[in-house]
Amino acid sequence: MTTPVIGVLALQGDVREHLVALAAADAVARPVRRPEELAEVDGLVLPGGESTTISKLAVLFGVLDPLRARVRAGMPVYGTCAGLILLADKILDPRSGQETVGGIDMIVRRNAFGRQNESFEAAIAVRGVDGDPVDGVFIRAPWVESVGASVEVLAEYDGHVVAVRQGNALATSFHPELTGDHRVHALFVDMVRANRAAESL
Asked: Any catalytic annotation for residue 17?
């Protein structure tokens, strides 16, 4: 099977780190800014950053509606931190004009773990990731307030849900791309491979 091509939405945030992590997890990784670039990838990462800014830039670059359509059609997608917010069907405290891609039946709270100066790291046991817990980096991180029946909770921290999966959509409150541990990205690459195999049947 050919190596999956996975994009990173390159409008704002820690794009380079995700590109490195995906390449280390045996994917062809490339930045995506425009609809024609989105059409060429098998899956997409929505990086951390500022969720309101990313959503507004996605509209400006004409990529938000095509991205929603591909997620609804089953394209694998992985969101970290701000990316988790973008994948939520509902935000508790949205900024004015803030839109989401949607795709995961969850309600999220922005900046739930505190401000920038309250950032921290914690060991997070993630279902589906073998071995030791993942070192989770939380930077102005959201948490998941509630999930629908079709959402699988993959990890919790301090009583709050911080990693979820629904079908081909994966999301974490934390930033695994900042740690050098690429196991969560490898989990996503496996999801993309499985989706490609299913589509080729």
From this structure: no
